[in-house]
């Protein structure tokens, strides 16, 4: 097992140094009023704007938060047990970022496509926020053309689902045959987002909305989902994204969202055999395929799984993984408006290496910070379902001991978030 004794300074010392670094590097920013923070929603709530600038500041000062999908609902060997979390039970802390999924909300069902009741999800979102954690929501939206066929074939779970590649994007754009229905689907999400109300937290005693990093239409550069790749056109994808933002923000008045754009690294063109990009321009060309524009995106995400590297090919992939994250950070820093770089999905269900956390993920997250400013603001691994399908550690699992070492690095969990993310300055 790799150790990090030279990096493992006392936690209080690290937080003190971080506070000094942030104070020095962000002093100019902190002179700005909160209303001037450049979220794409000028009317975003104070907590949402504070989250934006604080995540940007963390990334800019080489700090990364750790996140986990469905953390407090799913674990290996358990489901929805109060207070439980595989991450907590292995490391002693909840993750700093919580991912949730709202697929099937648009169908009026009481549970999402994985069986999580939306009422329970709402409660757990609020619980995580009360502890100071960050909330992100993805949406595996069902196919607007074929959704009525869901469950029609017991041997094929895909008909009607987000993986159903029947062309649909053009039908839900303005003037399309399913546009009115799509607006109703967005109405359902708007109501859910507006239902995330909380009061009595240390940073705001009054009732307010929980900020959410909203990540729709992810991995669009591949053809896995009906909204991506060969299943639509670049122009239609851009139009869909822009309409979605405008409808939620401008027509429905949803002001507690940050919008995350997240291509899939597997489908980015121009990579070498080791999955690295020859230069930043090649990375940018691939990354910005169907990019909706700076006025419509707050977070520059990247979905990058370890199983992108086929077993048996002799491809290690670690250098390409690290360089891709470095280039993502550079791409975010190059924009005229502030953008937050993030590893929005990662993991490795096959776990070829029980020391993956410290020998693969950690070096990729800290990257080449000796020569480059910044790293991703957060890294989120996907859910733990069972012993054969999990992207996080679990008690007794092969990577659990290494994950404890990973927790003792400069990656922040919920108990180590160095300052309140929801206040400014």
UniProtKB/TrEMBL annotation:
Domain GH26: 46-415
PROSITE patterns, A to Z: GH26, PROKAR_LIPOPROTEIN
SUPFAM superfamilies noted in UniProt: (Trans)glycosidases
UniProt-listed Pfam families: Glyco_hydro_26 (PF02156)
Gene3D superfamilies assigned: Glycosidases
One annotated GO biological process: substituted mannan metabolic process
Membrane as UniProt keyword: yes
InterPro entries per the UniProt record, alphabetical: GH, GH26_dom, Glyco_hydro_26
Keyword Ubl conjugation attributed: no
Catalytic residues, chain numbering: 219, 345
Membrane-crossing segments per the record: 12-31
Keywords: Glycosidase, Hydrolase, Membrane, Transmembrane, Transmembrane helix
MF terms (GO), sorted A to Z: mannan endo-1,4-beta-mannosidase activity
Family: Belongs to the glycosyl hydrolase 26 family.
UniProt-recorded name of the protein: Beta-mannosidase
The organism of origin for this protein: Candidatus Desulfolinea nitratireducens
